[in-house]
TrEMBL record, chains A, B:
Subunit field text: Homodimer.
Uppermost EC category: oxidoreductase
GO molecular function terms attached to this record: copper ion binding; primary methylamine oxidase activity; quinone binding
Catalytic residues, chain numbering: D293 (proton acceptor), Y380 (schiff-base intermediate with substrate)
Family to which this protein belongs: Belongs to the copper/topaquinone oxidase family.
Protein's UniProt name: Amine oxidase
One Pfam family from the record: Cu_amine_oxidN3
Enzyme Commission (EC) number: 1.4.3.-
Cofactor note as given: Contains 1 topaquinone per subunit.
UniProt KW keywords: Copper, Disulfide bond, Glycoprotein, Metal-binding, Oxidoreductase, Signal, TPQ
Recorded superkingdom: Eukaryota
Signal peptide: 1-20
Length: 643, 643
């Protein structure tokens, strides 16, 4: 019974990491019910309510949590806790709550629930209900009327919610049916237009309407079982560049489309254009600390050599680069970039239990490609990843490590603090000063061609006031093609929307514009006043998202000359031109921000703090592009046999 | 020259995944400058400006991006592009922008920049400037006055920004110095109180003040080189439970604190309390689809068997569990949960180039422990991970896969759409209906003991109006201990704050309350009206964060009986009691929401869409708890020799 164990996680010097699942002397108070305990519960309840005279259904059987105090006592001393079970059963159509002492095998309580709502449905009653339509003549006729083959129909059950009905309700299930003909993917082949409601207690259909005949969507391209598919390739093609200012640059990235048998362009260029780090201490020794790490110190110039095995896993490949000395001499930077595959995730999966006599489980494990570099500007280390997924997603990740900037103070305990110290006392005499990190990505999309548009799809509430629905509201979307760079300035987090770059000249077979969308992380907004000098220079942080027409010279969001700049050559200035961005070559700029309130764990060197975002294909492909791919084989590491 | 290559990423049926770094016939137009090209550039510029008569410094040497049209032409036909370099050099104190044709070895242009701002600093001039203080008598005296050893001092350079000065500025660098005595971690041992400004052109100190003597923070506990540390253990201890309604439950999680040599409690219980999935189609066949997957169908009851190698990597360990049939009989669920280690990340790192004659690079690779289960409710598959990091972080991740719910329509192309179809035409006759996924986590923290408080730390702008600083603004924090559950209801994303659960009865040696903070992802807010029936039942989504006093029976955010519930037993109702939550046993509830606008890639089965959050120690430890740990050894997989 592996589950009923403690799990210890440890690693030890020079030994390899190891998971140890070790048995305990005694069971944990939160151990799930054992097989024997479940059988005991069943016996006790059926002893009181013999099935000869009673109709008994177990809806919930679980542990009745012991009191916290006793659990904590067990944790520290091993003192035994109570071990009770809590059961919700429907007995003769009444909802019973029963508590059982598992040590004494005694029924402690048996109360009848009379309030609103019903217990979790049993799997068995759902299965039974889903057979009802096949014996219901009107349903058989509806199927016949549609010209469908009843033996290829399979049904599924849906809970019904509550819409203000005041009469006492019955336990019911709505049933919808699907075609399993030519595909295991029943959900995409609904037989719509039929309403079926089953009473779960009487186990009979109590409502049936055939309202309208809608075509059943075709089976073509819906199959997902590997045994029914021919695996194609999944394939990214991109260039990894390097620049002494930008660091790593991803260029001309395109992905192979298995449907059209060609590579399609996605990202012309992607790189971090600037990193703005304003500290938040206005005093004489600190006020000026408002750094632009890319423009002032050179992100590429600050790339450091990676350490094999530790910065990148053992199977990584490394790339070198050249930096340039003050006198113009090239200097080799060894292991500047590494590239490796990452495993352990899932690409897609589904377990299907809804088709009688067939259990289907299809799982594709994931393999992604990561391009990593580390930029160390003085005290901070920025770990910068570009992850490419076979599904078409690109996921950039930023992780912070290295040291805090520390201010020395004559304070050793928080109680001595008087006035604002502009940071956290992270150690004796050491204030970790408040600051922000704003990374701005230059993302020059070329979605299936150069001319693209930026589309903002807003979600908005629609109120239903005309009794046309039992619902009072729902949400829908309205899409807006953004016309100019002025309208494309967006502060994220205040209203729900999806942001996409699309190619209005290329459509899918069903007429959607092909595109990629930005899946952002939690947004940070600047807290400096607009007219403050650092904010003027870092005005590209005023919005999280910007879109500009492509201009070969607009590369650096903080300006070409940033050291002591006056903020007259920033993205915020360029976009005052109100240039058109519809169906044009456009660049999306995205700001990833972190407000950093230091804590003691960041001292004397901080464990990685990570954030990132996703560029995800959205109607770019006709369908899931990795539907037909198989899981990668087990990777044979150096010195390994295949397991 | 590996860097100057295309990188192809592919995987193929039955073959193991492989990265192929393959040479191209021709170089890519975005290939970084080669060593030979950099030397050529140096030669051309120094030919025009011989160093005998000129002072030349190279501040930027990079590729002058070819026109996009020519790059794209190269991508499709291989037609050659121009290959120019762009150089920013300071020649005799003037900033020159030079363009060079690398094919013809010709200088194409040479313009002088006269605007604001200066180029990226060279590494060499920074190094030179950092030696200046040691020859500056007042600095030597300042060090002596502080009783410090000059041979243990090391300096670092900082750009100065711009604060509205109108006279033409000089290229300057501010210099701060640090003690390297007894530690390589110079940044945490600043010698504060001294202002040093160096002119980078004249290479001399032009401003020097010794304002105040502050103690230099001690070296103790700041060292990070493995060679100077004794590695301790990193160790999580927790219980993995299972419940037919909740699925996986993490209990009594504690982490070993290497400073105090004992395990300290963090999380008493954590699990997903409910999953609310309202669809957004008000029509007769769809309006009722507002599911509560945990309460109506049972999250644990819907856990599916994991597939070794694909759902979990080859080295995973599996745990079984029992579900209960309608008749009360236990039924074995094989491979319900898996546990595995994940590699490839970095735990912490730093490269130190600031200490003369010493290069330091310390990198600890990461190993984390993941507990995974998959809950498949009908069409959707939810991949649910709990990740435990040695640094003390817990990172829950939710990933969606499986099938969309599809509505059949008599439409095959977007152009035929009339009116709101409440979804996306993801394939012929198939609307993927708009919906939300709201997961609510029950997180019963016991931070170093049972009685905890919930602290909201707000970041707020402070304007400087009194000329006390050259800054006009900065931000600071104000922390608020939240008194009652009513005040703890928080909609995330609208104002910057950090949310933490702390133990007000346990403080670090510097007086900070020990705690854990919530690092949220982008927040989703409900779009249904408050009075709509589904929203009343799912009112626990009205806020992203809630805090309640611990109550053994308040386990299910949507109520104990959810099927056809009226919303009278939800978290939103309980918290109307305005119970106190200060220095009490408290539970934090966190809602992870996704608004799902389907796209064609989600059809016929969707690639994983992931989101998650982090529970991160914040002043819980005295310092970085993995400072002294070493990287785990290379893992020897089954059938492998150690590489």
């Amino acid at each position: 019974m592996k589950l009923f164990l403690h799990l210890f996680f440890f690693f030890f010097c020079f030994l390899q990491a190891a998971v140890s699942i070790a048995p305990l002397q005694s069971t944990h108070p939160f151990d799930p019910l054992t097989k024997q305990e479940i059988t005991l519960i069943q016996t006790i309840i059926l002893n009181k309510y013999p099935t000869k005279r009673n109709h008994v259904k177990f809806h919930y059987v679980g542990l009745d949590d012991p009191d916290k105090a006793t659990v904590l006592e067990w944790v520290s001393t091993g003192a035994p806790t109570t071990r009770n079970a809590f059961v919700i059963a429907i007995i003769n159509s009444q909802v019973h709550e029963l508590t059982i002492n598992l040590r004494s095998s005694r029924l402690l309580s048996d109360n009848i629930h009379t309030g609103n709502g019903f217990p979790t449905l049993t799997v068995d009653e759902q299965s039974d209900a889903l057979q009802l339509p096949f014996k219901h003549r009107p349903f058989v006729e509806s199927i016949k009327k549609r010209g469908l083959n009843l033996s290829e129909v399979v049904c599924s059950g849906f809970t019904v919610g509550w819409y203000g009905e005041t009469q006492s309700s019955k336990r019911v299930l709505r049933i919808e049916c699907f075609m399993k003909e030519e595909t295991a993917n029943i959900y995409v082949r609904p037989i719509n237009g039929i309403t079926i409601v089953a009473d779960l207690e009487q186990m009979e259909i109590i409502e049936y309407h055939d309202n309208a005949v809608e075509p059943v969507p075709k089976a073509e391209n819906t199959e997902y079982r590997a045994s029914h598919l021919k695996p194609p390739w999944g394939n990214w093609k991109f260039h990894i560049g390097y620049d002494v200012r930008a660091g790593v640059i991803i260029s001309t990235a395109s992905i192979y489309d298995p449907e059209v048998h060609k590579s399609r362009s996605v990202l012309y260029r992607g790189y971090i254009s600037e990193l703005f780090v304003p500290y938040q201490d206005p005093t004489e020794e600190w006020y000026y600390k408002t750094f632009f790490d890319a423009g002032e110190f050179g992100f590429g110039q600050s790339v450091v050599s990676l350490e094999p095995f530790n910065d990148c896993p053992p199977h990584a490949q490394f790339l070198d680069s050249y930096v340039v000395g003050r006198d113009g001499t090239p200097q080799l930077l060894h292991n500047a970039i590494c590239v490796f595959e990452q495993y352990g995730g899932i690409s897609w999966r589904h377990t299907e239990t809804g088709i009688p006599n067939q259990e289907i489980r299809e799982v594709r494990s994931d393999v992604t490609l990561i391009v990593r570099s580390v930029v160390t500007v003085g005290n901070y280390d920025n770990v910068l990843d570009w992850e490419f997924k076979t599904s078409g997603s690109i996921k950039p990740t930023i992780s912070l490590s290295g040291m805090l900037e520390i201010k020395a103070v004559d304070i050793t305990h928080k109680d001595e603090i008087k006035g604002d110290q502009h940071g956290t006392l992270v150690s004796e005499n050491s204030i970790g000063v408040y600051h922000d990190h704003y990374y701005i990505y230059h993302l020059d999309f070329d979605i299936d061609g150069v001319d693209n548009s930026f589309v903002k799809t807003n979600m908005k509430t629609v109120e239903v006031n005309d009794q046309s629905s039992k619902r009072k509201s729902y949400w829908t979307t309205s899409s807006e093609v953004v016309k100019t760079e002025s309208d494309a300035k967006i502060k994220l987090g205040f209203s729900p929307s999806e942001l996409a770059v699309v190619n209005p000249n290329k459509k899918t077979s069903t007429g959607n514009e092909v595109g990629y969308r930005l899946v952002p992380n939690a947004a940070a907004h600047p807290l400096l006043t607009d007219d403050d000098f650092p904010q003027t220079r870092g005005a590209f942080t005023n919005y999280n998202v910007w879109v500009t027409p492509y201009n070969r010279t607009e590369k650096w969001a903080g300006g070409l000359y940033v050291d002591q700049s006056h903020g007259d050559d920033t993205l915020a200035v360029w976009t005052k031109q109100q240039r058109g961005i519809e169906n044009k070559d456009i660049v999306l700029w995205y700001v990833v921000g972190i407000h950093h309130v230091p804590c003691q764990e960041d001292f004397p060197i901080m464990p990685l703090l990570s954030t990132g975002f996703e560029l995800r294909p959205t109607n770019f492909f006709e369908r899931n592009p990795v539907l037909k791919t198989l899981s990668p084989g087990i990777v044979k590491g150096p010195g390994c046999k295949k397991p």
